[in-house]
Amino acid sequence: MMPAARESLLDAAYTALARRPWSAVRMVDVAAAAGVSRQTLYNEFGSKEGLARALVRREADGYLAGVERALALPADARERLTATAEWTASVARENALVKAMLTGCWSERLPAPTLSAVPSSSAVPAQRRADGPLPSPGDFVAAVRDRAVAALSAPGAPRADTAELARTCELIVRLALSCVAAPPGEGGGVAELVRVTLHRQPL
């Protein structure tokens, strides 16, 4: 199957999930919305659980791609970390799956696939990847921290400086996640919190 058709099926599943609980999402409806047969859907994902895993994997990848974009902005380190925190808070506000992945709090409306790998008999490489381990909240902290360190550290920087940078990056990721779980009130939101915190951190 073409990757575009797989994306269409995932889009259809995501749209269906926005309208009704995952338990009420029917494979036949997802297939119809994407304009393919139900058999094609099963051939691609194997099962409804496989579709759920693929959807979660795609949303995780989309979140991390946004992190990469924020870290690549033509700005200083503090502003790039602030942009990363703002992206984290905003995407979690708009995307219930990303919020669940980042916090570990899966509502009854959402699919809640096991994070550990499941046996995969799929011949589809993208599905084999989705059947592998899915990221936990701690995995996201590490992934974003490591991306930030790679983006912000000077080539050949002393190890001590890199360790300090890693601590600062992890602090900002965890601050952003706290804003996802308990959104800040009036007064600047996540960006203001991050800027105040970074003002006290060596960067």
What features would you describe in this structure?
The chain has 203 residues and is mainly alpha-helical. The chain folds into 2 domains: 1-45, Arc Repressor Mutant, subunit A, CATH 1.10.10; 60-199. 69% of the residues lie in helices and 0% in strands. It is elongated.
Which structural traits does this protein have?
69% helix, 203 residues, 10 helices, Arc Repressor Mutant, subunit A, elongated, 2 domains, mainly alpha
Secondary structure blueprint with pairings:
Layout: H1 3-19, H2 27-34, H3 38-45, H4 48-71, H5 77-94, H6 96-103, H7 125-131, H8 137-152, H9 159-181, H10 189-199
Structural class: mainly alpha
Globally, the shape reads elongated
- Count every beta strand, where a strand is a DSSP E run of 2 or more residues: 0
Mean pLDDT: 92
Described by strand count, sense and barrel closure, the largest sheet is: none
The unreliable regions are none
Residue share in β-strands: under 5%
Q: Order of SSEs, N→C? A: HHHHHHHHHH
Number of domains: 2
Question: What is shown here, in short?
Answer:
With 203 residues, the protein is mainly alpha-helical. The chain has helices at residues 3-19, 27-34, 38-45, 48-71, 77-94, 96-103, 125-131, 137-152, 159-181, 189-199.
